[in-house]
């Protein structure tokens, strides 16, 4: 395993830093604290940011050139992600389209589907959301009940999806729907459905953070055109598994970069208050730094394997458990050390600069649930890495 970056990779990091210095005028924390912004204007700001990145060639970088990418390797993509997070850049609105649907269309879609959907996905003219989970079908996704029925050449979709990230702003949703009630896996198909049509109701869900970035969506006879079935009929499960594989393997250096920045901000506030004189405080901060380094080393191991052409293994489950549980530990320590000032809500005049700790604390609760819960990840490690007997 070679953990060193090549001179070309370091040059790429320098290129990204120079680009960010020129183009990132305000950090995401600064933008969200600006009282002039409401939820819609923050989405427009994120859309503009995605366009800037796209014009610079930084969206879908690993995709083939034919589809707007530059065939970049895993390491370059990881460096880009790490730099964006280290600089507290806004998250692009179309991250589900870019990280999940785009690769699915490149691997399983038709030429016509790629031509129709990929350019607008990259430029953020169309925002996508992911309709997999249903009430009662999250971890056990294959139990899903949304169904698609033939209507001439097209399909009509009936059922409910939930926890639909970015649903309230999305133009399209990619859904898994049942086309055969008697075949658990082979009876699931993958459809692309426009949200602006009769038979669609999107209800925003209020979150613990106060935002409504998620929705639950009800489809009651909404139409999916025949040409918007991805892959063959009954191939939805296979496609979904490849798609979720991308989601699990994508973030090798992102979280150490994001949390590293947060730990630095925390340390500087504590130091200003004279807190570093305490052994107990130094131990707490030191532990965070070390754990973040461990996470970085595991991310580098994943990247080294991917560079060597090995498939993503159980390291991605280890990473998922580690970053999501570490984020909760980090925000617990931060609120403990910062006291009441750390709990001030976004926009409060005395809120600390750099990190919105109250928001981070609340948001970190979701990390151990989405993209596969900690329990499910532990099951994967037990089965695939430790080869433990399972019932
Ligand atoms: C912030 C956020 C964003 C999300 N965005 C999306 C999205 O955009 N699109 C989408 O489709 N979904 C989305 N989800 C849904 C997410 O994928 C599910 O919440 C997740 O898969 C868990 O499913 P569930 O909520 O139904 O919980 P359940 O599966 O009902 O699990 C409940 C509890 O039981 C445990 N459990 C379940 N099965 C097992 C088992 N076999 N062994 C041990 N323990 C088990 C779980 O770990 C959990 O603690 C999002 C969720 C969150 C929190």
- How many discrete structural domains? 3
Taking all Cα atoms into account, the compactness measure Rg is 22 Å
Gap from first CA to last CA: 35 Å
Q: Low-confidence spans: pLDDT under 50, at least 5 residues? A: none
For the record, the CATH class of the largest domain is: Mainly Alpha
Q: In CATH, what is the homologous superfamily of the largest domain?
A: Butyryl-CoA Dehydrogenase, subunit A, domain 3
* CATH architecture classification name of the largest domain: Up-down Bundle
Order of strands across the widest beta sheet?
A: 1-4-5-8
| Helicity range | 40-55%
Q: Supply the helix-strand structural class.
A: alpha+beta
Mean pLDDT comes to 93
Taken in chain order, the helices and strands follow as HHHHHHEEEEEEEEHHHHHH
Overall strand count = 8
Q: Which percent band covers the strand fraction?
A: 5-15%
Give the helix tally: 12
Ions, cofactors and other bound molecules: flavin-adenine dinucleotide
Q: Per the principal axes of the C-alpha atoms, what is the gross shape?
A: globular
CATH topology term of the largest domain: Butyryl-CoA Dehydrogenase, subunit A, domain 3
Biggest pleated sheet: 4 strands, mixed
């Amino acid at each position: 395993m070679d953990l060193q970056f090549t001179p070309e990779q370091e040059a790429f990091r320098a290129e990204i830093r120079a680009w960010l210095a020129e183009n990132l005028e305000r950090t995401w924390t600064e933008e969200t604290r600006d009282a002039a912004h409401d939820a819609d204007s923050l989405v427009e700001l994120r859309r503009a940011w995605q366009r800037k990145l796209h014009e610079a060639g930084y969206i879908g970088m690993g995709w083939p050139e034919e589809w707007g990418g530059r065939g970049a390797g895993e390491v370059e993509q990881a460096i880009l992600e790490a730099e964006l997070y280290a600089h507290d850049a806004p998250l692009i609105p179309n991250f589900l389209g870019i990280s999940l649907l785009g690769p699915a269309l490149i691997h399983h879609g038709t030429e016509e589907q790629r031509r129709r959907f990929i350019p607008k996905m990259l430029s953020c003219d169309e925002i996508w959301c992911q309709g997999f989970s249903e009430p009662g079908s999250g971890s056990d996704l294959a139990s899903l009940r949304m169904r698609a029925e033939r209507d001439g050449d097209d399909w009509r979709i009936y059922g409910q999806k939930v926890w639909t990230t970015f649903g309230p702003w999305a133009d399209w949703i990619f859904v898994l729907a049942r086309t055969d009630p008697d075949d658990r896996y082979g009876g699931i198909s993958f459809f692309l459905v426009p949200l602006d049509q009769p038979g669609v109701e999107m209800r925003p869900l209020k979150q613990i953070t106060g935002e409504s970035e998620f929705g639950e969506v009800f489809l009651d006879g909404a139409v999916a055109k025949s040409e918007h079935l991805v892959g063959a009929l009954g191939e939805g499960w296979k496609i979904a598994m490849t798609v979720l594989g991308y989601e699990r393997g994508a973030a090798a250096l992102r979280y150490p970069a994001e949390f590293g920045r947060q730990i630095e901000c925390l340390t500087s506030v504590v130091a200003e208050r004279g807190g570093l004189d305490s052994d107990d405080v130094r131990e707490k901060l030191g532990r965070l730094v070390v754990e973040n380094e461990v996470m970085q080393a595991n991310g580098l191991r994943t990247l080294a394997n991917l560079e060597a052409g090995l498939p993503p293994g159980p390291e991605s489950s280890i990473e998922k458990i580690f970053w999501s549980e570490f984020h909760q530990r980090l925000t617990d320590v931060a609120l403990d050390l910062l006291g009441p000032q750390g709990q001030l809500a976004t926009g409060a005049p005395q809120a600390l600069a750099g990190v919105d700790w109250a928001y981070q604390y609340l948001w970190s609760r979701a990390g151990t649930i989405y993209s596969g819960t900690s329990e499910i990840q532990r099951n994967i490690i037990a089965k695939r890495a430790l080869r433990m007997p399972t019932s």
